[in-house]
């Protein structure tokens, strides 16, 4: 099988700062700006009300609404859905109609528990595991408020830790708001500041961004301010604070409208999140769907104990055994994403990489190709481990165990989402025994060993070694060009805004051709 050509072409990023305009007379943007009623909250001691857990899950039910990429699977083995319907939650008819068209009928538990409060303009702390529907839980109250009290611009600010998560949140706002004339923009690193400033000049309703880039625009973009902002939303708040955005968040809190609603959503309640809650929320209602570090019931979790020397060989064996499936391979270091991608392409696998040093346009391009199954293997650092809703991921491979056990939860959360099944396989070398034990202790579950045919594995060793030597040649070219020592850096990918790899990749096209006839990858049966 011939190897794949380079996938990191420079794609235009202008589609990320989106603006949806419709001409329907009933749309909110055709109305005159009304004076919204201020939301007044007394500054008292924090008084959280605990939710009552749902005692029943929704049984299998046929859905006659048209299916879309946003639709949840009503088969609910992971017990994330409520027994309520959206129509029972005091959502306005306009939004109910849109939700129905998109295939939404039954809310998840975080949605059904939080919406009765958020729709009444109460601050919310929502604690729920990944894949539980937190995004729609804050999209609905924001859009309903905007429908009831139309405002021309800068109505809501959403802060998220990664560029990809910001773009994904924007997609949800666009899908739900497309029929009501919603305008959104995305402010993230890796994209042109000037084009983002132009998008802000068009006065969008919703701004989604990373704290650093939002703070940059507040300081430098004329006409952009948050004095009239009615909603502030922190998504993946624990990750936001883990990534040292505290300074930028404080800068935003200093200038944003004090008379606003604030929603804070997080997988965990850390001490930093608790501090942020005190600084930004007023008398919040606390919704806890799951306070433990857990994995879903439909996820099969395996480990494989192997010598460090044979990690690449076992990886190729497992990929070969799962040919045609959609797979994410998690590694720790940025350059390892490149090395393994080069190696797999030499052997005929359809692989693509994503890491924090790629420009945003190339990261978007890589994710798009993976989502569309143009490339079925994604080699990623933890940039892709949280928040991303990539449909139909069959297998997660932890090629390198995460440095922190809780990050395992977020990695394997990319599969077995919304009631679907999935599998994870963790590579354990002689240096990783303590790490895998920490993970098992955290999830309170013993993993089963993944069975392999050692004779078949070792029969691949020579070919994999030859491909690795070729890939190392590529990597040497890369490190020489970049003058970097990241290869020897033990720190995880820091998701910075540098685009160092793109120029190198432009000149890499067709380098794999000398190896194209040496593939041992199984071919799909026609």
What would your notes on this structure say?
35% of the residues lie in helices and 12% in strands. It contains 17 helices and 14 strands. It has helices at 93-101, 109-118, 134-148, 163-177, 193-201, 211-220, 237-242, 246-255, 271-280, 311-321, 334-346, 360-371, 405-412, 433-443, 454-459, 461-482, 502-506; strands at residues 124-127, 156-159, 184-187, 206-209, 231-234, 261-266, 285-288, 299-305, 327-330, 351-354, 377-380, 395-398, 422-428, 448-449. It has a seven-stranded parallel sheet with strand order 3-4-2-5-6-1-7, sandwiched between helices. The protein has a seven-stranded parallel sheet with strand order 10-11-9-12-13-8-14, sandwiched between helices. Helix 3 (134-148) crosses helix 4 and helix 13 crosses helix 14. Residues 1-77, 485-491 and 495-518 have low confidence and may be disordered.
Report on the biggest sheet: 7 strands, parallel
Rg from Cα: 24 Å
Mean pLDDT over the residues: 80
CATH topology of the largest domain: Rossmann fold
Category by helix and strand content: alpha/beta
What is the chains' assembly state?
single chain
How many domains? The number is 2
Helical content (DSSP H or I, runs of 4+): 25-40%
Q: Just give the CATH class of the largest domain.
A: Alpha Beta
| Overall strand count | 14
Beta-strand portion reads 5-15%
The neighbouring-strand order within the major sheet is 3-4-2-5-6-1-7
- What is the CA-CA span between the terminal residues? 14 Å
Going by CATH, the homologous superfamily of the largest domain would be: P-loop containing nucleotide triphosphate hydrolases
